[in-house]
Amino acid sequence: MSFPYTILMIEVTVEQVQKDSLEKEYGAFIVFLTKNEGPLGAPEQLISAFEAQINALKETNDLPEDKKKTSILYSPGLKTKRLGLVGFGEKDEVDLQLIREVSAIIGRKLRDLKSEKIVYIFPEGTSLDSQDIAKAIVEGAILGTYKFTELKTKDKDKFKPITYIGVYSKEDISKGLRWGKVIAESTNLARDLANRPSNIATPTHFVEVAKEYLKKYDNMKIDVLDEKQCKKLGMGAFLAVAKGSDEPAKFLIMEYKGGNPEDKPVVLVGKGVTFDTGGISLKPQSAIVGMKGDCSGAAAVIGAVRVAAELGLPLNVVGLAPLTENMPSGKATKPEDVVYAMNGKSIEIINTDAEGRLILADALCYAERYEPKWVVDLATLTGAIVIALGDQAAGLFSKDDTLRKRLKLAGERSGERLWSMPLFDGYYDQLKSKVADMKNVGGRPAGSATAAAFLSNFAENYPWAHLDIAGIAWVDKSTPLCEEGMTGAGVRVLSELLFDEAKIRNITIE
After folding, report:
1. 427 class by beta-carbon count within 10 Å (0-12 exposed, 13-18 middle, 19+ buried)
2. Per-residue pLDDT averaged across 392-411, rounded?
3. Catalytic amino acids?
4. Residue 459 CA to its chain's centroid (Å)
């Protein structure tokens, strides 16, 4: 890779450990607790080694049985000196998202104690599927202990990431461990891309990273269209955004062919604005910081395609990522300019800061050539969705009830919640233009809905859904699954949808 330094995703060894492994030396063992039931699934030899301390905590009512509470115990009785305890709370309230979060909380605490190798004891006795539990443990551990440090030089060696995650279980949970590892590492790859500043994470950089991580798969094809090729295809909306930048725009195409040749592919489309100044409609200083993350949709699509390829899903998956900066210059598109999208529709650009929908318009047109089974796009598209939903869910827009329901349930299973939003006829009325087929903005009211209505004009010939991830793409303070920064939003929910499409983990729609 043509970088001035090494930038590599941290890969973690994940494996199921057997009972004799409890005699080996790790940084720590981890045990889950529920109220009034104590340690779940913990082997007797482990409990015996820490019995005195556990009993002392019981006597003082300090045993961390409450939800997300933790304690770290120490004992000379085993080669592994630390035992991490973490609480679930009430047993009947345990779900997959809670497992992810408590795994992350205790994992991060042990990471900060320089425990590079940790072993979780599988929590027996819940009503959840064992493979799903294993997957959630690993997802939580890898996501929660991620830290973006690659650009630091001072005290860099003081940070020690988790490099090994073991899970002790009496039953075979290898599938779940594999799923969790691949999905979480792909999410962290998306985080890396979105966390990097735009002088590094240019459109060219995105292409190089995609090639670096996807070229090893025999059934993967990667194409890149340059600006000249995009112009020949009639991508006037995409190129209108790229005009203001000296950084060459790229249209990244990733084709994973894991299904039968005759199977229709599914298509994932991600917004890839590697920095968004707003263009001529320049953002204020308070809004411009953080805009290196406006590429989060494209980053998530690269991550989701990697999940499909790494796990060998029996599907044909296409990932499309229009990549560009949005900059002001003498060449930049101006408000009231009119451009034509790939499908021939004319667009009056009222606000150059509504650029994501422009690049997605041509990408959605390009998707049509695959005769897709369905298309999902995702983008940090509007501030309006943040006002509507905050950081608790992404907005889900679709007129296809089946695809909408599948996505909503995939969101619940993955922990990346989606909330169904409307596409009423009145939103289209707000986009009417006196000089073109449509405007690119419809005013302040219902800004996320009018943006989705705009996109639907370019996705008319296949089942389509739009995810506005602006509220969940980054966090400004640490959460259990992510320290401050970019979250890699979208990889997990798209992975669950792909699992369902591959009939590996079916989503039941009532």
Report:
1. buried
2. 98
3. 283, 357
4. 23
